[in-house]
Specification:
The complex is a heterodimer of chains A (about 230) and B (about 850). Chain A has a single domain, classed as Rossmann fold (3-Layer(aba) Sandwich). In chain A, about 40% of the residues lie in helices and about 25% in strands. Chain A has 8 helices and 10 strands. In chain A, the strands form 2 sheets. In chain A, strands 6-7-8-3-9-10 form a 6-stranded mixed sheet, with helices on both faces. In chain A, β4 and β5 form a beta hairpin. Chain A is globular and about 50 Å long. Chain B is elongated. In chain B, strands 12, 13, 14, 15, 16, 17, 18, 19, 20 and 21 form a 10-stranded mixed sheet that branches. Chain B has 4 domains: about 190 residues, no CATH class; about 180 residues, no CATH class; about 260 residues, no CATH class; about 170 residues, no CATH class. With about 850 residues, chain B is α+β, with helices and mostly antiparallel strands. The chains are: A alpha/beta (about 230), B alpha+beta (about 850). Chains A and B meet through α2 and α3 of A and α1 and α11 of B.
Amino acid sequence: MLRIGDLSRSFREGERVHRVLDHANAAIAAGEVVAIIGRSGSGKSTLLNLISGIDRPDGGTIEFDGRVISALAEPERTLFRRTHVGFVYQLFNLLPTLDVEENVRLVLELNGIHGAAARARSRAALAEVGLAERAHSAVDVLSGGEQQRVAIARALVHEPTLLLADEPTGNLDEDSARDIVPLLRSLAQRRAAALLIVTHDPGLARSADRVLELLDGRLHASAAHEARS
Amino acid sequence: MPLAAAAVLRHLLRHPAQLVLALVGLALGVATIAAVDMATASAARAFELSIDAVNGAATHEIVAGPAGIDERWYVALRRARLPIDFAPLVEGYAAIGDRSMQLVGIDPFASPAFDGGAAAPGARAGATELPELSRWLTHSGTVMMAAATAAELHLHAGDSFALEVSGRTQSAEFLAPLGVARPGDAALILTDIAQAQEWLRLTGRLSRIDLRVPAGADGARALARLQNELPAGAEVQAVGSRTRENLDLAATFTVNLQAMSLLALLVGFFLIYSAVSFAVVQRRAIIGVLRALGVTRGEVLATLALEAALIGTVGAALGLLLGVLIGHALVGLVAGTINDLYFVVAVSRVTLPASAVLKSLAAGIGVALIAACIPALEAAGSHPQLGLKRSVLEARATGASRWLLLTSALFASGALAIVCGSTRSLFAGFVALFLLLLAVAALAPAALRAGARAAAHLITGASPIVRLALNDIATSLSRTGVAIAALSLAVCAMIGVSLMVDSFRESLHDWLGRTLRADFYVTAPGPGFARPERRIEKDVVAALLATPGIIAHTESRRVRVESPAFGPVSLDALALAPGSYAGFQLIAGDPADVWGAYERGALVISEPLAWRLKLGVGERLTLTTARGPHAFEIAGVYREYGNDRGTALLTRAVYAAWWQDDALTALGLYLAPQARPAQVMARLNAAAAGRQALMIRSNADVRELSMSIFERTFVITRVLYWLTAGVAALSLVSALVAWELERARELALLRSLGVTPRGIALLIEAQTLFIGVVAWLTALPAGLLTALMLIDVVNRRAFGWQIDLHVHAQAFAAAAAIALSAALVAGLYPAWRSSGAPLAQAIREE
């Protein structure tokens, strides 16, 4: 489903060129849950940005369901992201100018689903994350855990086939984090969506089907995880 | 509204202060444009209506020189049985109390042929009841006027009142109101033609003959026949051409006002840019999330453009409303200046033409869209990585300031190239001026950064807080850059305008000192410059000149004559006293030859006329005289600031011979050395008493009056100048509030380290004052260049006169006071806000 081939990406910092990804390779199947671990600055978020089409690689390819995403022009990459990708961020990134239900419905509108149908689907998505009662609340009055649930509902409401989560529990207390991970996993699996989680949290990584470690710009199967499995 | 758009647009509703600042800036800019358009259009419309109210359904008119047309020729014309309707008219100006009125004498039997839907004056006079018509014809002094005007003057039918015509008080009787009210009637007095001839001292003469020529080939043939019948000095003009010629007199004046209003909008542009760019920067996270969710660049751009269009529409609409209010105040000033300098106009109704509404709306929306364009493109074009760092933004702003330096050099070079590449175009002059102002605006951010860094370097050993304050300025160009650009531009324009006005004032003062050589000046009172009915009676002239103590005099007849090639030309026919010649500063022509040629019948023309008509010494100017067109040789060119359209001088004897007009408009009287001015003044007043009310002024009074007219002319400029300063100050407030909001946490951190709220307030005030100082320093040389541009390019091209640059320190000091006051006031709110913000919340919010 998702194939990463010889992916490279560098950033210039003054005179110095920082090679974040260096011929990275990976393949992720539909419905699979993959955790990506690595040190700070190792390129985990850059990898998610490249997969989602937010950023473009310097070299290599990203192939999704046989379509080379990395070769697409910017508008096509945006449309790809709109249709096929759901994103969950560490800082939630909910829009403060929209209420809870509007935050979720926004993605449906972008995908051409409007009116009552969109409202019903966004309500259903909120119900799935246990926030149906808070549909018309302002997002900044919600707790961190609740905001992340809204973000998950938003990421999944349009039934994407690829779910990307960048440190989804990084900004949550332990209790909230414990609830979020199974929720994310179960909702992704219910939709047969591949789930890619960037995390520092060993517990969260352990719950994945597979763990890839980003080291020196390349993706390696995590030795620790393989030993446990 | 789509949710993606709502997510972006609701931001400004959550920050109403920001929205209000953007709207106020735009509204002020649009208001100045609308107000100037409204005031000038109202004056022009009032003039058109006053012409239309007299012309009625006429298609053409026969006009002649200042002496008018011999009425015997009119009788002959009627006998020629041409298929044309004729209506003779005698017109001039009169005053009822302080109110200037247009006095029109008509033939009630000829004029009804011009029924024009019962709207022409003749029809309206003829439409009166028979007893009234009988009284009109048989009683001396009967007049008609609009019912509303009569009501304002508290006149009822049958009331007698005093009418002053060129200093003579006449007794008039209000017969009846005009039958059909029309907009141009407000300043119209209608009387019988014979009565008007008597009052205006035009016995046997007509001011013009209105014609109604049938359309088509018959009309063209009749017109051709009429042309052959015309006496020398008379010509047929299409109705409207005279109106246009008159309106053209004030065209440059209105263009200058419009340029000033555009300046206010230009400064407003920076305010909008500041507000919109800050709003975009504040929403970079929202825009980033939307882009990550799949909103395309085009959709982001469209949303921001929609927001700008909404702000533009609302701001422009508010500006229009404000413009109407300012326009009402401005119309009196504009009409006053037009009356002083160009033609008589009484504005009774203020109108805002549809074109001005459209122009204001287009300007407002256009400015908002252009201002939003750069930040919107930047936001939409950025990679949608979330949380674009402030440091990245500031690095970009610093990079942009370097590019702006280059842009500034390009703008300045462009301005120079335009000035050098064009010699006469006023439009090119204004383009160059605006490029110069933009060059200053583009230079200011880099100057601020360099200034702040240099100051921080110089005070290495000083308090770290002072260094922090200076470094903050240098590293916050994304906010402070726009503010200083707006302030520098406004201060530069202020210095330029101040120096130009001061230089003009000084040049005018010197010129008056040189030109006004007589001890007393006597003129016939009345509205309008160069009106033929303004004449001093011959017996009064004789009495004045016989007054003991007068040893010499200059005679002047000021009229407006026609040039077939150039339209109306102001002519001053002079019989100069020996001491008066030296009053003319010749700038072309050999002084040894000029006055000899002048005495032999040549013209000496003023610099503005020479510039406008592109004529020089040795060339000829053809004028329509009572004996037909005659090409007068130009013997010299002299300096003049009294008439922006210029004047041609001719000897009175030559004028009288060519135009058959021996009337006098003014006298300049020279006193004997031993004469006592006060005593002679009393004798002069006694000589005129009971004969004609004249304006007898001393040399000093005339100078004072001239200077007061000059000051009045620039009142409008000053009003617009202060509006521009207001917009610049608002721009600064907007940017500072934005800056303060962004660094709330940094300021809270300083407080948590022990800086008192008062210390924070002082820090912010010191920073804003520093911005004010740098803006002023940047504007100093640029202001001087702007003054040179205004004097040597704009004024020269607009009016043709050359002004000597006079630099006074007061102009710079006033600009410093304005820049620093604006900065100080602009810093008050952010200082108050920051020093009073709850500390814990400010730290937590980040």
